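=== Structure Prediction Worksheet ===
Name of assembly: unnamed complex
Input type: mixed (protein and possibly other molecules)
Chain count: two
Listed entries:
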Amino acid sequence: MKNIRVILLFMLPSVLFGQNVEFDKSIFKDKKTEFKEAVNNLEEGDAFYMSEPFALYHLAIPFYEKANAFNPNNAALNLKLGICYLNTVQKFKSLSFFEMAYKLDPKVSPNIHYYLGRGLQLSQSWSKAISEFETFIKTTNPKEFADLIDDATKHIYECNSGMKLEASPVRVWIDNMGAEINSDGPEYGMIMNADATEIYFTSRRPNTTGAGKDLFTQEWYEDIYMSKRVNGAWSPAVNVGDPLNTKGHDATASLNSDASKMVIYLDDKGDGNLYESVKKNGLWSKPKKIDEICTEYHESSAWYSSDGQKIYFVSDRPSEGKKGPSTGRDIYVATWNPSKKRWENPQRLPDNVNTKYDEDGVFLHPDGKTLYFSSKGHNSMGGYDIFYCKLQETGTWTNPINIGYPINTPDHDIFFVVSASGKTAYMTSFRTGGFGEKDLYKITFIGEEKQPLLNTEDALWASSGIPVSEKVIEPKVEVRKSEMALLKGTVRDAKSNKPLEASIELIDNTTNTVLAEFTSDAETGKFLVSLPSGKNYGIAVKVNGYLFHSENFEIPKESDYQEITKDVLMKKLEVGEVIVLRNIFFDLNKFSLRNESQNELDRLTKLLQDNPSIRIQISGHTDSRGSATLNKELSANRAKAVVDYLVSKGIDKKRLESQGFGKEQPIISDDSIAKLKTEKAKEQAHQSNRRTEFKIISK
Amino acid sequence: MNKINYFICSFVVCSAFFSTAQVNEVKVLKAGDPVEQKSDSTAIPAKAQEKYNEGIGFFEQKKFDESVAAFSVAIQLAPTFGKAYLNRGYAYLESKNTKLAKADFEFATRYDSSLDQGFYELGILAETDGQAEEALRAYDKAIASNPSVKYYYRRAVLYANQGEYARAKQDLTAAVQLDKNDALVLNDRGSVNKQLGDMENAIADYKAAVEANPKMTMAWNNLGSTYRKKGDLSKSIEAYTAAISSDPSNFLSYNNRGVAKMDNNDWKGAIADFRKAIDLNPNYKFAHNNLAGAYLKLKQYEDAVTAATKAIQLDQSYGVAYYNRGAAYEMLREMRKACEDWSKAGELGVESAQAYFQNSDCSNQ
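=== Predicted Assembly ===
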């Protein structure tokens, strides 16, 4: 860019022909004062335009605009204004200036066709843009402008992509998130919890912490803001304040599913690093640099996997741990080591995801499989475009797919986050009709155009003459599978109803492995856990001094998105308290314990070991179907199987009783089950009645 | 000439919409040939024949009770007098006494198995009673006795009603072989071919039908629908237009032509046809619904809502109209209403509406 500007200034004296009007006092003899002012503006603008270490185009524009208002027919000034706008959020304004510059003087710059191509690309005039880029490539000295020629070649590719993408747009509503969220300053980098009820984003506003401005850009320092969705409406955004916001730049990077952990991007004097803050008792901790993934290179965007076991992040470090200059921004993933409590083994995602161009704005959907990110490569239609790819069972990633137009535009499209249901998303964009600068937008996916269903009928049979309706042929509509469920609720004391900070274990019952551990919020008792499909999950909720609580969820592989609300009431370890052991499993009509019961049985063993004085009764229960005698026998055998397991683990037999109740003590009565509307609900009710319980009979 | 008469009754099937597509089949009381009667008289006493002819006379005067009485005397005198049973059966039919009519047709065919009319009438009565198998057996016998266009046609219709299109086609083909210019039979064979998915032969039959009777609106319409199903939209529109020319009050063909125009991306032309269908029959829900569909394509969503609402007012259980209105509401950003309509359409069996309900953010509405 610097080269271009130098060349441009070098050429200015030669722009003396055509309709071009130079800033020459001899031309403006009658407007000496105005001319002087215009030249001053021109010089002021040039100071920003040529500033080091980087040009401040947005600051040059007001001065150039004033000078241009005085003399709109100066080719060089029009070109500079075009270049300035090309480097701001208002890129679309550049084209008219480039066109004017070219009209006034076709030789205003050796790169004018390149600029015209850029402006035309931004206005989605794909064919014209390609033509300009091709003219540029043909007419430009390849040695002198090799980089720019490469860039023009890439833009041609982008225009071709844009043409195709625009021809088959994705059907979405794109709605500005409104005045509660957006301001006349820029908003960007929105992050959210899994059910999209709590959002954080970066903005530059006058109420930034410390009320300071960036010395170079003269813009307010970035701060983090927050809003909550209540009854479908967003609350007015508030500055989250200390300790997340400091007097410098503070920007959002990632939020985990239940909004208890946040990754923040701090510039660190150009180094660019990621910091983590944890919310405890409603308060965010002081952000701590994530040393394991930060390097002397630039780390920016990041996102936690829903189980907290991975962190995806963006770094411009040289690949494969080499030293040397940055090789562009790529996406990496690091793995959490729970025993060492640190991130380990950062790995660059493969080449079918990362390109030789920059990637940024990474977001892993709560389904744990779908990675959204922005890239300047692949089939971008210009700047960063948003792509997604899926993690397959083999551990490989599918080739990224451009999310499509009009979500993607020829300009930068970045920071795309998708709700757990997959039906809505949020992004940062600069669009006409916004509040000024970049705003946050909600995307609602409305799918393919809904084709009308029509009816015809014919009198096929002469004998009757009665019209026969032709069967309506419905379009084949696939139900979008989110392939996950969200489990959310609160943990409270069963008697006082006081919120509790509980440890929540997420267990894969098939493999008997603990997938992740979460904590409910101490202040509210709230928790939110993502459950990707294809597993049988055991949930164990534990609080010191309380009996554990267990739940079981089967989320089939091809299941629809569902939100499950479960308010857990924790019972203290007191005589008479009963707990259902939801993760103890038997085969149908058998009483041998299945392997999936291991974790639950071990929890029970530990409870008895930790409380050596308690005596318990294990009871078996069946549903109401089948023979009462057989049910009673089966339930007694099942209870005994649990007792036998505990004894085998060293628990004194005298502390254990077992009893089978058959179908005598249902949780849900047959009458209530009969009133349930669906077979699925009825089956679930029967399933609730089939259970193993334990009861404290003495302490 | 001795007048031994046969009743040949008539049945007229009128199409509600196709005045030119009437099936006129005349069943008249026919005088017998004296020579023929003579040969019959070897077994029939003269007095019985006299009473028989008297019965015919009463029948012609529409004095059905007297006719029954005269035939009854004839039967008393000659208990195996098949034609007397047959004609008394017809007299009972005129008196709406189907039970006795049926009994007489059974006696008639028992005593004289050449009386194909008796078998035929037994088939008709069995069909009326919903006894399809019994009717088929009767038609089989009628055809065996006298393989006529009428009997083949009747059996074919019964097969078609049972969804046995291959058998229906066989009978209609047999009927065509007897009469190549029977437009009604050709039309119905076209419909059978269409139901069998044999569009080429369906088109050939419908074309033959309109050639035999260029005013046969029904066949023109069916030809249009077959061309539409085949994707030949210009020929489809042409055939519907011929149906409309043949009967300008034919709102079915306007509606169908509108759909063909929709398939041809001629939304405005479709709207004109749907409106015309509605002018001809304001309570025709299909045209209102299709009009909504055309407005959807033209992105006139408010108009689509109005038209679909009218269709729903005409039939509260019209799932497709709920589906279309939901689609219009969605584009008007009235998601709550869109979700309600898709939910209702889903309940009414429109599967794609269920899918749209699930795919949209309906749970948050």
